Every structure is written in structure tokens, then in C-alpha cells.
Write the C-alpha cells for this entry.
Amino acid sequence: QVVLVESGGGLVQAGGSLRLSCAASGWTFSSYAMGWFRQAPGKEREIVASISRNGGRLYYSDFVKGRFTISRDNAKNTVYLQMNSLKPEDTAVYYCSATSSVSEDYYYRGRYEYEYWGQGTQVTVSL
């Protein structure tokens, strides 16, 4: 059974930082490309960042470029999202996602390309 568990969310002031973690279990983590999405109230779920199986290819949405960093540790079955210079508009529930990938060097950007999802972690950025 594929299980993804996010942690690290919370309340932070604008300009602050948070590091989200997503621990995976029940499957071969290195066989999956990973992604972080977010969903604010009343809005669609949107891609934040994604990473290939081997960590060699990364994708960032324009609104987080230069502020967020996605990474993974295949030995620890964990994917991370380092979030710096947070803004109030970053407030959302952040979801970790996984999809099986034949290629080691490919990332996925589409919400419907991902097979598995975590339960989400709330990030709130105050002024």
C-alpha cells in the first residue's frame, strides 16, 4: 500500500521559511517521480514543484521560482520542499504526490498525472 505522509506545515510570518517533508512507505520510492501541489480555499489544486526519480530534473511554477527548492533523498524515502521568503499568497494546504515513472529523468506537472497523494499539511503565512 502506497502511503505518503506530509509534515512541517504551520504558521509563519511573511518573509519566513518552512521546510515540508513527505515520507513515503509501502513501495519502491526511487521508482516514482514526486511532486508538491497546493490548494487554497476556493481555488484549484496547482503544481508547486516536481522532481524526477533520480532528482536530476526539477520543475518549479513561476510563482515559487527562486524561493522554493524541491529535493529528495531516495535512501530515506523522503521528498522535501524548502520554502523561503514566504508570502501571504502562499497560504494553502500543501500536498505531496507520487507517480510511477519508467524514466529516471522525467518530471510530471499535471495534477492528473499523479497516482498517489498525501493528506496535506496546512501552511499559513501572516502579514
In short: The longest strand covers residues 92-100. DSSP finds no helices and eleven strands in the chain.
